[in-house]
Amino acid sequence: MISEIQIFKILQALGLQRSHCSKRKLQPISKAKNDENGSDHSLVPPDSIISDIESYTPWKFEHPSALDSFERMMKAAKGKKIAVFLDYDGTLSPIVDDPDKAFMSDEMRAAVREVAKYFPTAIVSGRSREKVKQFVQLSNVYYAGSHGMDIKAPPRPVKSSDGKYHTISPGIKGNEVAFQPAKKFLPAIQEIITELEEETKKIQGASVEDNRFCVSVHFRQVRDEDYSILQEKVKSVLKNYPEFHLSEGKKVMEIRPSIEWDKGHALEYLLETLGLSNSSDVLPLYIGDDRTDEDAFKVIKSRGQGFPIIVSSTPKDTKASYSLKDPSEVLTFLLRLARWRKSSSSTRQHSQIWGINS
Predict the structure, then answer these.
(1) CA 107, CA 304: separation in Å to the nearest integer?
(2) What DSSP string runs through 4-39?
(3) What DSSP state is assigned to residue 355?
């Protein structure tokens, strides 16, 4: 059992004067009490806070703050090329009750725009590519929607991709191509959406989102007692579609085609199309908060170099090496990253190498 002094020192060091895990504040006791040895216990954290800290602290040591570790990370990146990959919900924007209102702040948009001036930057989201593009509203980043099943990227040969999944069409400006490995499933996906909307319309708070190559059933506003009913209805629809599978994220059920493609494959594809896949001096930096981002973390780990960063204020199993607590810390990290590159003497050279207009 750690001592109260240690707890407060940990709280101070980690910036956890207020517990993000339980959303409870440390409550001062109105009158100071001394124990037999005369020690002042005027501020005693609740047992629940102690439990949170005891579980969070060792996790934090295994997944240190990317902000606290920034100088060390950038020292390792000196002379190398960083490619930035960002999840959207819970990373660039807060998790909200209404998924259609998951707007990113103007400050976050400016930070991502600045980062993309100096590094190749991609948004990798479970949302449809068009929807996440509407949220982000930036032209100097690449977009991968539907968990990487809908990618717009530069037209380069892709040696690592399975040819049977390859579907390419010219981009609007002629300088990008679309990669859509699940295109043949589009008719079935539309059928699934229609059936789900019919089956779930009587469950208050449930909503079905068309993410083009996958389907999301949101239940953040569904009553706890209705969740099992909703889950059964979703599963009953999927029984007729054996080529699809069901997974669960943060208050959302997701239906995806059962193909060998995920955010990890999307990361590899983008590195390949950017001409960075076989280079030993490339460091992929991926920031995400959901279990679907773990596939990308695994890819970075397998490469033996790079920065997988989990966004979480609570301990969770993850392949990430570093952590950030919430989107506000993501914002701070991105601003520091842009400033670091801006102050580098090689700023101009790197901006030209990536060939992305700001």
Answers:
(1) 33
(2) HHHHHHHHHHHT-SB-TTT--BPPPPSS--B-TT--
(3) T
Q: Beta strands of 289-358 (E only): which ranges?
A: 307-311, 322-324
What pLDDT is recorded for position 57?
Answer: 78
Buried/exposed 227-266: b ≥16 CB within 10 Å, e otherwise: beebbebbeebbeebeebeeeebeebbbbbbebebbbbbb
pLDDT confidence of residue 18: 40
The tens digit of pLDDT for each residue in 136-159 reads 999 999 999 999 999 987 665 444
User: What is d(CA 89, CA 91) in angstroms, rounded to the nearest whole number?
Assistant: 5
Q: What sign has the CA pseudo-torsion 268, 274, 278, 283?
A: negative
Q: End-to-end distance of the chain based on CA atoms, in angstroms?
A: 53
d(CA 203, CA 227): 9
H-only helix segments in 119-185: 129-136
Query: pLDDT-derived band of residue 13, with 50, 70 and 90 as boundaries?
Result: low
Instruction: Please identify which of the residues 40, 47, 52, 87 carries the catalytic annotation.
Output: 87
274: which 2 tokens?
Answer: 């950017």
Told to judge if 68 belongs to the known catalytic residues of this protein, a careful annotator would answer no
Strand partners, 151: 144, 179
